[in-house]
Amino acid sequence: MIDTKNKMPLLGGILILLLLSCRSSNQETIRVENIICQPIICEDNYIIGSPREMALSDSILAVMDAKSDSMLLFFDVKSGKYLGKAAMRGQGPSEFTVLSSLESHNESSFSFYDINRKKFYYTNSTTAGTVRFTPAFRIDSGLPLEVHPMANGKFIAPGIYEKYRYCVLDSNGQVHSTLGEWPYRDKDEKTVSGIVRSQAYMFGIASSPSRTKFVAYLMSADMLSFYQLENDSLHLRKETIVTYPDYEYRNNPTDYSGASRDSPLVYLWATCSEDYVYLLYSGKKFRQNALASFSGDMIYVYNWNGDKIAMIKSDKMLKQICVAKDGKTMYAIVCDLDPVLVHFPLPQWE
Question: PROSITE patterns, alphabetically (predicted)?
Fold first, then answer.
């Protein structure tokens, strides 16, 4: 006679082992690389108050500073020289207010967007001695918070919009087209005003050097979208949604109260080479870590198919990152007593 009483626990144990084995095999395994940050020694003293963005053109690194009296600082990373500052803060005709969308161009030049003035600017070559700013266009409709050039002469402009996720502008700053829908977790959130959802799901974007691809990322949730420019149109290649922003909403709210301070911040910043996307990760909650939650020591690496392939573990806490055009070196700002410029070589991922 078969002893079923003794056999049932044995079968149960085998089933548990099989389930655990399946769960283990489904866990994500990626390459992990540890790096050591090396300071960029500048001959002259410099002070970075509150760095917001970075961009590298040739050997010139531009840093956007939210607290300095001049909002752009320039460094030569090869010679280790601090070149000076420009873009005086103020309300005058040749002054600036709130800047975003710092981008590099050829011959050590850059572009950026002034949110309050709703104007997009180019600089001349920053190695020419005096930095000059040329307004390219003013935007008269909508509320874009970023403006980034694309390879086809158009500009992608994330912002606060009711019925779409992105606005595409022509070279005169006029609306060429719109695309995308704000995400939602369920049918109740779908009824929330687009103005509110646009703030809850506010994406930052980072482009490849060719400006034919860009990634959209969130600070308030683990959500990534990878886009490709094809035949003058933008196509969503892949979107991954792991979590949604934690904020209060009603069926028909009119005001956005901000994300919960008890939710961890996710992606702080992104920078791209032609082959890979690098995302600086926080994972810290504002209520517990305050301003320290806006820094991180982990950088996740994705390919443009949207696959996570590696993680870089830094020996320092970082606030901003910027990859060189050839994809071999990463520049960053370390959170020390004062922000410090550093660099480190990047591993080859293939």
Answer: PROKAR_LIPOPROTEIN
Q: Quote the tokens at residue 70.
A: 């001049």
In the predicted model, residues of the chain with pLDDT beneath 50 are 1-26
Residue 94 has a pLDDT of 86
The domain defined by 29-345 carries CATH number 1.20.1050.90: no
Find out whether 71 and 90 touch, Cβ atoms under 8 Å.
Answer: no
- Convert 140-155 into a string of H (helix), E (strand) and C (coil): CCCCECCCEECCCCCE
Per DSSP, the three-state class of 286 is helix
The pLDDT mean for the chain works out to 89
pLDDT, one tens digit per residue, over 282-314 is 999 999 999 899 999 999 999 999 999 999 999
* CA nearest to 98, candidates 134, 147, 132, 35: 147
Token pair of 308, please?
Answer: 């996570």
Please return the burial class of 176, using the count of CB atoms within 10 Å of its CB with bins 0-12, 13-18 and 19+. Answer: middle
How would you classify the pairing of strands 155-158 and 166-169? antiparallel
Which letter, b or e, does each residue of 258-286 get, where b requires 16 or more Cβ atoms within 10 Å of its Cβ? ebeeebbbbbbbbbbbeebbbbbbbebeb
Question: Tens digit of pLDDT for each residue in 34-67?
Answer: 999 999 877 667 788 889 999 999 999 999 998 8
Task: Indicate the burial class of 7 (C-beta count within 10 angstroms; 0-12, 13-18, 19 or more).
Answer: exposed
**Beta-bridge partner residues of 32:** 311
Tally of CB atoms within 10 A around 17? 10
Distance CA 316, CA 246 (A): 29
What's the CA gap between 124 and 251, in Å, rounded? 49
